[in-house]
Specification:
alpha+beta; 6-stranded antiparallel beta sheet
Length: 153
C-alpha cells in the first residue's frame, strides 16, 4: 500500500511547497539524510511540529514518499531548511532518493501527521524517548526541539 493510501485520513497541510535538495549525507550503510532548502516565498506556507512527516513528490515518480522530519521548526524558521533520513528499501521513493537523488533537484513537500510532541511550558520536566531502527527519525526532531528550547543552567 502506498504512503498516500495508508495516510489518506490523516491530517496534512493543504498545499505543497517547492524545495531544492541541497545536501545528501550517508549516515550509515543503509541510511542517508537529505536536506532541502525551501524557497523564501514558500516558508510562510510551511510549518510543522516535531515528530511529523513530510510528503515528498519526486521528479518523474508517480508515487509520493512519506518520511519523518529530523529537523526542527526552528531550523525551518532560521535557515529555511528541512531534513529527513531515509533507510534504503524497496519503496520507490526511497530507491529514487538513494540511487538517483542529486543536489539541486527540485521537489514538492507537504507536511502531515498527527504524531508530534511540543515542548511543555515547564522546562524542568524529563523526557524519555524510545525507538528502534529507522523509527528513531521522528524522535530526532523531538529531541533536538527539546534541546533548543531548554533554558541555560
Amino acid at each position: 500500500m502506498s504512503h498516500l493510501a495508508r495516510t489518506k485520513n490523516i491530517v496534512r497541510q493543504m498545499s505543497s511547497v517547492l524545495a531544492e535538495l541541497t545536501s545528501i549525507k550517508q549516515e550509515t550503510p543503509t541510511v542517508k539524510s537529505f536536506r532541502f532548502s525551501v524557497q523564501n516565498k514558500n516558508v510562510e506556507d510551511l510549518s510543522f511540529h516535531p515528530g511529523q512527516w513530510v510528503d515528498v513528490k519526486l521528479p518523474g515518480l508517480k508515487e509520493v514518499g512519506g518520511f519523518s522530519l529530523t529537523s526542527t521548526p526552528k531550523q525551518l524558521r532560521s535557515f529555511k531548511e528541512l531534513e529527513i533520513a531515509v533507510k534504503a528499501s524497496d519503496n520507490k521513493p526511497a530507491i529514487w532518493l538513494h540511487q538517483k537523488a542529486d543536489r539541486g533537484v527540485q521537489v514538492q513537500l507537504r507536511i502531515g501527521g498527527a504524531f508530534y510532541h511540543e515542548v511543555p511550558p515547564e522546562r524542568n520536566q524529563k523526557l524519555l524517548l524510545i525507538a528502534g531502527g529507522i523509527g528513531i527519525t521522528p524522535l530526532i526532531s523531538i529531541m533536538q526541539n527539546w534541546a533548543e528550547n531548554l533554558e541555560p543552567r
